Amino acid sequence: MLEIYNPATDKHLLTIENDSKKEIANKFAKAKASLSHWSQTSLETRLTAIKKFRSAVVEQKSTLARILTNEMGKPISQSTQELNGLLTRIDFFLEETPKVLAVELVSDSAATVTEKISKEPLGVIANISAWNYPYFVGSNVFIPALLTGNTVLYKPSEFASITGTAITQLLHDSGIPEDVFVLVVGDGKVGEELLKLPFDGVFFTGSYATGKKINRAVSEHFTKVQLELGGKDPFYVCDDVEIKSAAASLADGAFYNNGQSCCSVERIYVHDSIYETFCTSFVEEVKKFVIGDPLNEKTYIGPLTQPAQIKFLESQVADAMAKGAKLVCGGKAMARAGNYFEPTVLTDVTHEMTVMKEESFGPIIGIQKVKDDLHAIQLMNDTAYGLTAGVYTLQEERAESILKQLNAGSVYWNVCDRVSPKLPWSGRGNSGMGCTLSHYGIETFLKVKAWHLKA
Ligand code: NAD
Fold this sequence. Notes:
Layout: E1 2-5, E2 12-16, H1 21-33, H2 35-40, H3 43-59, H4 61-72, H5 76-101, E3 104-105, E4 114-121, E5 124-128, H6 134-147, E6 151-155, H7 161-173, E7 181-183, H8 188-194, E8 201-205, H9 208-218, E9 224-228, E10 234-237, H10 243-255, E11 267-271, H11 275-288, H12 309-322, E12 326-329, E13 344-347, E14 364-370, H13 373-380, E15 388-392, H14 396-404, E16 410-413, E17 425-426, E18 432-433, E19 435-436, H15 440-443, E20 446-453
Parallel strand pairs: 5-6, 5-8, 6-7, 8-9, 10-11, 10-15, 11-14, 13-14, 15-16
Antiparallel strand pairs: 1-2, 3-4, 4-20, 9-18, 12-13, 17-19
The structure holds nicotinamide-adenine-dinucleotide.
């Protein structure tokens, strides 16, 4: 049984039954049986269904935002922003998929053998998803997967099951057949069971720890696997910046969605000549954040989604302080109902501390002093992760030189915590493998076929 609670109030919302082994097998069989029909429907039919889904999201935006806020505690303004971002992603996929699917003629007209490349769907896809951005991370997979003719078993996180059910309903109402997009409900055990089945592709978004298990489980079959995992994303503030604006931008990058974004700013390095001033400005920004009821439009920080996260964050604070860090603000759970944790800033931190090495995934940040660009680059790359990284400076050449040396899938100059549907989203090292978004994130759902034709 899944017991779902509102993380802002601790109120019980719903009990859902986990899918049984038999139900999972039946769902897989349904998706497998519907593959040949769905993959042969016209692209126009598939585009029309996704356009209808887009219209339904527009019509029901405020209801969908409330569902997410009640289930995972995301402030309502940020739930609405997530849905607006979903629309932009759908628009990108609607426009780009026909281009990606077009047959490529690669031989010239004088060739005796005509050569062309076509693309076919991978087959039956498992889409196992995280809870922090269910409308984003789910749709990065299921929209291009469906548009390219795959059938999908979609398992939302146990912390976003109501949201996942709402997404499924909307897709079915929009004309995606029930045996083409199939909801699987449950926790990690259900995910484990799912992966015993011979999928053609497994697309996972979640933690490094689970990603490792998934990679192992999938290696039993010849299955394509893609893993979008966590990060410990570093940013460097050079000595030439406009300090207040850099501090405001990075505070937003660290605390938006309560720090529960895969690309949240997790570590900040500041040139020692501006360290104290930057830290003061940064804390001023953090103190402006409105904390409270996530249904209130003015709220910027709501509760954490998972109650267990509070103990983990407290352990990072304790570890840092025991090793000499200074706690400038926050540091503990708030005395109120729900999973609230004070926005926390630690200075004088080092890489001996877990807060600078392990993904925090919460409202906490360490700010470390560095002596120059080289020192900053060396510390930024001192990580097992490689999702995003960036630099704040007024000098474009300096930025470019630093960004080239960072081992991360996405790099940023004077911005952070940003995802664009036109750019590939990928991690390196423990942040995963493969990518979603951009044309690469559509091609990943396809197999290529080489044609050699002699008249
Ligand atoms: P999680 O790993 O706990 O769970 C993710 C999903 O995996 C859930 O649906 C869960 O039920 C399922 N699962 C758990 N154990 C499983 C198993 N043994 N086999 C199969 N499925 C299993 O992660 P989470 O707490 O939902 O999400 C937070 C993590 O996701 C963070 O580390 C965050 O950085 C990462 N994330 C990464 C991206 C990205 O694009 N790189 C995006 C969002 C979140």
